Amino acid sequence: MANYYDLEIWKSSRKMALFLHNQVKPYNKSDSDQLANEITDCAISIPTIIAEAYSQTLPEEQEELIIEASDLLVELESMLQKAGVRFNLEAKAVSDGFALINECKLGLQMVQQFKIQLPLTKVGNRVYVTPPPSNQA
For 96-131, how does the pLDDT look when each residue is reduced to its tens digit (9 = 90+)? Predict the structure, then answer.
């Protein structure tokens, strides 16, 4: 795997960050309410941290960054709940946001639970620690 952007967990976190940014974008202009800015900053930090974890060669450093990303996902979940009420976001948008956050949380939990070193590759319903066998790619 050549780059971090080939990682399924990075792709998922980027998709989540873009989705959440677009949901709160209309509210980012208000200086009186920093919640939208905090959501955007937090969401964008997660794929950045995953990319940084990919670049680490020591498992301990990688694990520390994965924990940091996981903690930010929990914080982001709380912020999204507040934003749903404060900005009167559509229920579907909030639900989709939670689904994307949970997808990222599950990916990071898999990395932590099984002490898997990145990179992870997903093909269909299977996740590989190394590139997938050529007959399934």
Answer: 999 999 999 998 988 777 665 555 556 666 655 555
Geometric angle at alpha carbon 80, from 22 and 28, rounded to 5°: 45
Assess contact for 39 and 24: CB atoms under 8 A: yes
To the question of pTM greater than 0.70 for the whole model, the response is yes
> pLDDT tens digits for 54-73?
888 788 888 899 999 999 99
Q: What is the fold, at CATH topology level, of the domain defined by 4-128?
A: de novo design (two linked rop proteins) (1.20.1440)
What lies within 8 Å, CB to CB, of 105 at 6+ separation is 70, 73, 74
Distance CA 9, CA 21 (A): 18
Burial grade of 54 (CB within 10 A; 0-12, 13-18, 19 or more)? buried
